[in-house]
Amino acid sequence: MDSAPSLVAPGYWDDACRHLVKRDRVMKNLIPRFGEARLQSRGDAFTTLARSIVGQQISVKSAQAVWGRFIALSVDPTAPLTPDWLQGLAIDSMRAAGLSARKVDYLRDLANHFLERSVHETDWLSMDDEAIIEELVAIRGIGRWTAEMFLIFHLMRPNVLPLDDVGLIKGISLNYFSGEPVSRAEAREVGDAWAPFRSVATWYIWRSLDPLPVEY
């Protein structure tokens, strides 16, 4: 496996922060709390999707713990994952790292899609968000939420609003509705006001719940 890629932040981040601070009362208070912290991409599509699968339906802290045990199965845990490496892992070893049987199946299917070149990685930069989501959800274990995490954390698309994300809904409730329950329509209305930088605002809403930066 090649050496691990460096984390890269999106070039639009500072402009997005200035835009949001001017237009949103919550963002005006929230964004300065986190200083120079930024969304960062690992630059590796396969690793990003694998981390998204591992992180499904568990907390950020739990996901990082499981991921740490999972990559420790590698001879070089600092190297990025490859489909070949994952396919060569024993299922028992993956389960011992804390992965459910279902997530093991999902990760192996993801590896198959990359090995068989049934995902069009070289075309993603020219495809719109919905077209990429449609391609990714054809992979077992990747629903709309996981595809949206990929758009945010790998392709660093600036205007994604992941309404299926529990943390986003909770954060909108706490920051905009004094903790009262929030409907999907109400969350969408708040998020639409963040355009064209809904991904950035979402990232700061996540930070309001957990200062530990989310990484996929």
TrEMBL record:
<keyword id="KW-0234">DNA repair</keyword>
<dbReference type="Pfam" id="PF00730">
    <property type="entry name" value="HhH-GPD"/>
</dbReference>
<dbReference type="GO" id="GO:0006285">
    <property type="term" value="P:base-excision repair, AP site formation"/>
</dbReference>
<dbReference type="InterPro" id="IPR051912">
    <property type="entry name" value="Alkylbase_DNA_Glycosylase/TA"/>
</dbReference>
<dbReference type="GO" id="GO:0006307">
    <property type="term" value="P:DNA alkylation repair"/>
</dbReference>
<comment type="similarity">
    <text>Belongs to the alkylbase DNA glycosidase AlkA family.</text>
</comment>
<dbReference type="InterPro" id="IPR011257">
    <property type="entry name" value="DNA_glycosylase"/>
</dbReference>
<dbReference type="GO" id="GO:0032993">
    <property type="term" value="C:protein-DNA complex"/>
</dbReference>
<dbReference type="GO" id="GO:0032131">
    <property type="term" value="F:alkylated DNA binding"/>
</dbReference>
<feature type="domain" description="HhH-GPD">
    <location>
        <begin position="54"/>
        <end position="210"/>
    </location>
</feature>
<protein>
    <recommendedName>
        <fullName>DNA-3-methyladenine glycosylase II</fullName>
        <ecNumber>3.2.2.21</ecNumber>
    </recommendedName>
</protein>
<dbReference type="InterPro" id="IPR003265">
    <property type="entry name" value="HhH-GPD_domain"/>
</dbReference>
<dbReference type="GO" id="GO:0043916">
    <property type="term" value="F:DNA-7-methylguanine glycosylase activity"/>
</dbReference>
<keyword id="KW-0227">DNA damage</keyword>
<dbReference type="GO" id="GO:0008725">
    <property type="term" value="F:DNA-3-methyladenine glycosylase activity"/>
</dbReference>
